[in-house]
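Long-time lurker, finally posting.

We've been working with (Atlantic silverside) hypothetical protein (Menidia menidia) and I want a structural starting point before designing mutants. I don't trust myself to interpret raw outputs, so I'm hoping someone here can both generate the C-alpha cells and explain anything notable. Sequence follows.
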Amino acid sequence: MRGKGEVYRACLLFLAVLQIGSPSSGQDSTNTTKPEDLGDGGRPSDVTVAVGEPAVFSCRVPTASQNVTFTFYGSHGNYSLTCPHGHFEDVPQALYGSCDERNGETVAVWTLKGTSFSDNGTRVVCQQRNKLDEPSAVLHVYDSEASYYTLVGCVIGGFFGILLVFGLLFITLQRSKTLQRALCLDGDGEDDMDTIITKE
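Top reply, 14 upvotes:
Generated this for you. Predicted structure of (Atlantic silverside) hypothetical protein:
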C-alpha cells in the first residue's frame, strides 16, 4: 500500500495537469474597441468578442457639429444616444451609453457589459444632423469554448471527488472496529447467532 506522502504527491500532480489544460481569462483573444483607439475618422468599427465579454462601440465627430445620434439596434430593443447633451432612452442594465468631449471631438459610446449569442449581429449607427453618410458597425459574438473546458473539468473533478470520498469511507470502515461493530460488519455477530440457534 502506498504511503500518505505518495498519494498526496500524486493528487497534486493530477491537479496541476488539470490546471494546465484549463484556459485563463488572459488567453481569450477578444477585440474590444476603446474610444481612444478609433481610427478611420471616428467611424464605429465592427467588434468581435467571446461570449460574456464586454463590447464597446464608439462614434467620434468634431465638436463643431451640432449633434450626433448614436443608435443601438440589438436583440433586446433599439436605443438612441444623442450627444453632446447625453440624452438617451431607458436602457437595460447590461447596456450603458455615454457622451464625452475631448480634443475638439464629441465621443458617443455604447458599452454592452456582457454579451450572449442573442447579441450576435447587433448593429450601431452613427448619424449626424445634415449628413447623408450614416456609418455603422456590427457585433460578432463567438464561443471561446471555455465553457466546454469548464464542464469537462467539473465532470472529471466530480468523478474523482466521488472516488476519493468512497475510498476514504472504505479505509475508515476497514480500520475502525467501532464502526464495523455498529454496522454489523465484523464476524462476531454471526458466531453469536450460531450459539443462539444451536443451544441444547
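Before you design anything, note these points.
Strands lie at 47-50, 55-62, 68-74, 77-83, 87-88, 95-102, 105-112, 123-128, 136-142.
Residues 21-40 have pLDDT under 50 and may be disordered.
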